[in-house]
Amino acid sequence: MILGNGIDIIEIKRLETALKRRPLLLLRIFSEKEREYFKQRLYNPSTIAGCFAAKEATVKAMGCGFVKDVRINYDESGKPLITVKGKEHIRFFASISHSKEYAAASVIATRR
Known about the structure:
CATH class: Alpha Beta
CATH architecture: Alpha-Beta Complex
Strand order of the largest sheet: 1-5-4
Helix content: 25-40%
Radius of gyration: 13 Å
Number of domains: 1
Strand content: 25-35%
Largest sheet: 3 strands, antiparallel
Number of strands: 5
Order of helices and strands: EHHHHEEEE
CATH superfamily: 4'-phosphopantetheinyl transferase domain
Shape: globular
Distance between the termini: 9 Å
Structural class: alpha+beta
């Protein structure tokens, strides 16, 4: 049963500029494991923006919550795996994509 659907799009340059102005945002928004993934990807702005878009889309799919509670991990093939603190009963299906200028994500929330 589908509980919700969320979508988000972000301008990559805008997030990149915000992170340059306020580097601590990276620590506030993203988990240690997410930051490790970014490091492996050489802090590619499109990777960071895609992860942020997935967090935002997840919050929208749930209808409430905080981006900080959303964790985005990736399997061996790069597929996003989403967990949310206190929402273990919800399963998330996500798709992340980006172009040169934008990153977008779509998330569907279902009962486990």
